[in-house]
Amino acid sequence: MIRAHGLTKRYGEFTAVDGISFEVPAGESFGLLGPNGAGKSTTMRMIGGVSQRTSGELRIMGLDPEVQGPLVRAHLGVVPQQDNLDEELRVRDNLIVYGRYFGLDRKYLRAKADQLLEFAQLSDKADARVDDLSGGMKRRLTIARSLVNEPRMLLLDEPTTGLDPQARHVLWDRLFRLKEQGVTLILTTHYMDEAEQLCDRLIVVDQGRIMAEGSPAELIRRYSTREVLEVRFGTDRNAAVVPRLAGIGERHEVLPDRILVYAHDGEAALEAITERGLHPITSLVRRSSLEDVFLNLTGRSLVE
Fold it and tell me: What is each CA distance from 200 to 59, 60, 100, 186, 256, in whole angstroms?
């Protein structure tokens, strides 16, 4: 569905996307992870054919989006980072009017709108004003709207940002159902648990370059340990304790409020710490996550 080779985008002297290469087969759920300014949204805009690449090759469904943009976009669904629903229209009319942009027949669209509202669990809101919808409902309506033209590929830019946990889980369920129907999903997200739930494979991007590529499980095995032990000795003592942890676990990371001990057996690491006469104020053993991989690859510094 997507083949990118040496894909580059520059704005003057600034390089937003720096020669990245990747492929996405049909039916896959593919993620782009990275801090703010990493080049994720720029890459999405080039895939959608609304931003021209500076250099490199890009093919979407075998087509060049710069040359055959309308044909590419006819088979794409787009869920932007911010909902851009028409608030002057009712819920059902948002779907019908959007479908007319694709030249679809009104009779077809009325039936299609009902199907999509049922899929998005919004049938009882069909005649409601968009202003009256909750944030989660608006997000589901935006996703429903993106499906009007029965796209082969769906681009989702941070689809659940700002939603509460219940709304996020409902959206995950809807997106998983689309994947089961064979729709290719391309998504960016800041939620690592979301990437683990939805992505078959992903790339971690930082400063416009690919830092790592693989399935969530592969990346965790490659860049982290099976478990992570979090211990707290007090903000003023954590750094002083670290030298006494030598040899326990694979590596250590000192944060302002705690120490992370990366180990294959977190409980054994905690036992080894207490055997050395160290008694943390709090301790927690958890499995390694994609967030550990992400922070290992891109750092913990805040990027504005």
Answer: 21, 19, 33, 11, 34
Domain residue limits at 45: 2-218
Residue range 127-146, pLDDT digits in tens:
999 999 998 899 999 999 99
Q: Are residues 31 and 144 in the same domain?
A: yes
How many angstroms separate the CA atoms of 138 and 39, rounded? 26
- Does residue 170 surpass a pLDDT of 80? yes
How many domains are there within the chain? 2
Distance from C-alpha of 131 to C-alpha of 153, rounded to nearest angstrom? 29
How far apart, in Å, are the Cα atoms of 168 and each of 161, 211, 295? 9, 27, 23
Amino acid identity, position 176: F
Residue 111, token pair as written in the block: 């039936």
Question: Hey, is 148 helix, strand or coil?
Answer: coil
Among 86, 147, 84, residue whose Cα is nearest residue 114: 147
Q: What's the full length of the chain, in residues? A: 304
Strands 14-24 and 201-206 come out as: unpaired
The identity of residue 97, as a single letter, is V
Please state the pTM of the whole predicted model: 0.86
Q: 288 and 192 in contact (C-beta within 8 Å)?
A: no
CA 35 to chain centre: 11
Count of alpha carbons within 13 Å of 185, Cβ hemisphere only?
A: 27
What's residue 190's pLDDT?
A: 79
